[in-house]
């Protein structure tokens, strides 16, 4: 990684992996918008104030087994893309899929986030 925003995104995902949601949100602007596509129970748009609600739903549905690993992080002054592997266990089986997180960056902080699953049908099935 060479761009400072790549390092910032790596820190954000490290915070998330450690359960430090305050650390995640500290790297976001006050007006950030989180957009989850598809037909998952938590699909929709979230603000900084409702981000914890989103994560709470994810953890409830996955029984606390949700995890992710950044495969690659690419960023410049205005945008970032993080390619991730996601996994969880549901009904006694392991579910894995690849997804992308697209970030808008303003003044060194994340200002918008959109999830773009590699396969939206697979994403919807994983979470339904």
| Terminal CA distance | 36 Å
Fraction of helical residues: 25-40%
Average pLDDT for all residues: 96
Instruction: Identify the overall geometry.
Output: globular
Helix-strand pattern, N to C? HHEEHEEEEH
| Largest β sheet strand count, sense and barrel closure | 6 strands, mixed
**Number of beta strands:** 6
| Count of runs of 4 or more consecutive helical residues | 4
Task: Write a structural description.
The protein is an alpha+beta fold. The chain contains 4 helices and 6 strands; from the N terminus they run H-H-E-E-H-E-E-E-E-H. It has helices at residues 4-17, 21-26, 51-61, 120-127, and strands at residues 28-36, 44-47, 67-75, 79-90, 93-106, 109-117. The model has no long low-confidence stretch (mean pLDDT 96).
Which SSEs are present, and which pair or pack?
Elements: H1 4-17, H2 21-26, E1 28-36, E2 44-47, H3 51-61, E3 67-75, E4 79-90, E5 93-106, E6 109-117, H4 120-127
Parallel strand pairs: 1-6
Antiparallel strand pairs: 1-2, 3-4, 4-5, 5-6
